[in-house]
Amino acid sequence: MSKTPDNSAILEWPAKYNEIPKEVFERVDLWPIELEKIFYGDEWHPIVHQSEIPNIGDYKASELGEMPLFAVRGEDNQIRIFQNTCTHRGTTLVTESLGNKTEFECPYHRWLFSPQGELVGCPNSREFTPGFDKKDFSLPTFRTEEFCGLYFITMSETVAPLKEYLGEDFYEPLSRILGGDGRLKFAGYQKVHYDCNWKAYCDNDGYHAPLLHLAFKMLNWQGGQGVQNVSENGHLSFESELKIPDDITALKDASILDFKGTETSTGSIVQMQFPLTVYSKHMDMLNIRYAFPKGPKGIEVHYAYFTHEDDDDEMIEHRIRQASNLLGPCGLISMEDASIFSRIDKGNKTPGMAIFQKGVKDEYKLELKVGQNDESGNLPRWEHYRKLMGFKRAES
Amino acid sequence: MSEIEPNVIFSIENLNRDYICALDKLDMNKWLACFNKQEGTYKLISNENESNGFPIAFMLDDKYERLQDRVTQVTVIQEDSTEHYQTRHMTQLTSIVDLGNNRYQANYNFSVFYTQNLIEQTAILCVGRYEDIVLIENTASFIQRKAVIDTNVLPRYMAYPV
Ligand code: FES
Ligand SMILES: [Fe+2]
After folding, report:
1. Which of A87, A83, A39 is nearest to A61 (CA)?
2. Whole-angstrom Cα distance, residue A389 to residue A38?
3. Domain that holds residue B35
4. CB proximity B5 to A under 8 Å
């Protein structure tokens, strides 16, 4: 799995590390390779937070690449993630995005599965193959790990354990987004389709924030001191102090921007886990953005928001009105990002390279040390992508 | 349930007409004028969240100042980064209930089409229902306009209320 495939004939990568061939966003023939090498390869993918399915029998449908799956809380209170397919002939078992079931019955020939995934009933089984044993027909599952209540899966047998894969610079801030201890309460989704390739969606950088988002300027919002941590396998983690000015005149109701904070919640955190999951904590908003490429074109993003079990009523209300107005596909400080996703995708139908500048000191060298407001933090991710895809870098 | 007077229906329909015409002309001040200045609220929420009891909304203007700030957001803060689109709101009144004190609960079904500059093809932005509370004094105004959309996955980011 870790062997680099020879796909050099498909696309040659430029010698300069800060140049990305625009065709990488547009070529439909890359998608099957991305599925195999990335989505079904040596990466971990978050599927569900325990608070999204708090009761026994609660389930949530999801996807990995093009594969349907679902997470369910079993009678033993354990969360398991299964492929969403009957082990008989393959009919999907759940058809709703969320729900609760005491058993999962396939309508086709009425095979019946427990929330733990065991096959517990199958009509007329005396007439089945001689060696038929129900035990061999449990729902197929995944290698699964949990972190602060968030469940990750991988198709890989060989990828490092989750914490090692994420690295401490990533999982420590992530634990704070997840409330410090994962004792979150789920507050709802905002779901949206963006008209862009998945790689355009997750190529947002550290350079744009004060420039694109006019709200920051209008609200006299100074970016505080901060860091951008980048790992070789493409994860990015931004953390900065949060300085919200006292006198916000552009808004009539500035309380929407209040930062109340908790013990584990100090500054702003934004994280991008390879290949395409964003986690963020802006002010008092705890947010996971599950993302699902719809083939080579289009991506569906499910912004999931949380409150903490220790919140009082005032804090819950504050988190909800903040998340419902500031973030997501209509948000005061985020809608512009969404407009860029589709515009960058459209613009990249032109020939040539997308060129990164801010923070690049040597075009021929990959730099893992980057400043808070550099866009060069995205380049290790692109290099990780290039290697996984087996594209050869041109000689300099 | 008492019979609803024709003039009440007329007032409610007028208010709804002002509302959808304001949005289709993208006149955010006329949109704001549809809400009651003391108590007006607006909410846009997915049916998935609403029916599961999840409080997160797409837009949540829970007091008049928030409504005013939404006008600023659309007309000033995000004006230049938005890929603008033309909307057409189609609405159908489905029920009116008298709540007393000149207040009425009115429900509408709606569908909103959009035509995006540059693409120029028309598609459905969202489909859903309005759950309104209307106060009728001299004129009618929204105490609450709640848009609950069946379209759980928006087809694009949304720049304006619906
Ligand atoms: S396909 Fe599920 S029971 Fe036959
Ligand atoms: Fe941004």
Report:
1. A83
2. 8
3. 6-149
4. no
Looking up tokens 């006329």 gives B30
Task: Tell me phi and psi for residue A58, to 5 degrees.
Answer: -65, 140
Q: What are the residue ranges of CATH 3.90.380.10 in chain A?
A: 19-39+184-389
User: Which residues make Cβ contacts (< 8 Å) with residue A36, sequence separation at least 6?
Assistant: none
Contact A119, A87 (CB under 8 A): yes
Q: Which residue of B has its CA nearest to A99?
A: B52
Buried/exposed B16-26: b ≥16 CB within 10 Å, e otherwise:
bebbbebbeeb
Dump pLDDT digits (tens) for A308-359. 999 999 999 999 999 999 999 999 988 889 889 988 988 999 999 999 999 9
User: Whole-model pTM above 0.90?
Assistant: yes
Closest CA of chain B from A387, distance in Å: 32
Q: A339 contacts in B (CB within 8 Å)?
A: 81-83, 157
How far is the alpha carbon of B111 from chain A, nearest alpha carbon, in Å?
17
With a pLDDT cut of 90, the percent of chain A lying above it is: 82
Query: Does the C-beta of A108 come closer than 6 Å to ligand 1?
Result: yes
Q: Could you give the number of structural domains in chain B?
A: 1
Q: Taking residues B52-75, what's their average pLDDT?
A: 97
Q: Do B58 and A190 touch (CB under 8 A)?
A: yes
Atom 3 of ligand 1, nearest CA residue:
A109
Rounded CA-CA distance A347/B146 in Å is 37
pLDDT band at B1; cut points 50, 70, 90: very low
DSSP A155: S
Query: pLDDT tens, B107-123?
Result: 999 999 999 876 678 99
Tell me the HSE value of A320 on the side-chain side, using a 13 A CA sphere: 23
pLDDT tens digits, one per residue of A274-310: 999 999 999 999 999 999 999 999 999 999 999 999 9
Q: Which of A85, A92, A61, A78 is nearest to A140 (CA)?
A: A85
| Interface predicted TM-score (ipTM) over 0.90 | yes
Q: Which residues of A touch B77 (CB under 8 A)?
A: 214-215, 218, 250, 332
Q: Is A111 in the pocket of ligand 1 (CB under 6 A)?
A: yes
Q: What is the CATH number of the domain that holds B36?
A: 3.10.450.50
A89 lines ligand 1 (CB under 6 A): yes
Residue type, position B87, single letter: T
Candidate from A229-238, A351-360, B1-10 with smallest mean pLDDT: B1-10
pLDDT at A220 over 80: no
SS3 for A2-40 is CCCCCCCCCCCECCCCCEEEHHHHCCHHHHHHHHHHHHC
- Does the Cβ of A128 fall within 6 Å of ligand 1? no
A19-39+184-389 CATH, one of 2.115.10.20, 3.10.450.10, 3.90.79.10, 3.90.380.10? 3.90.380.10
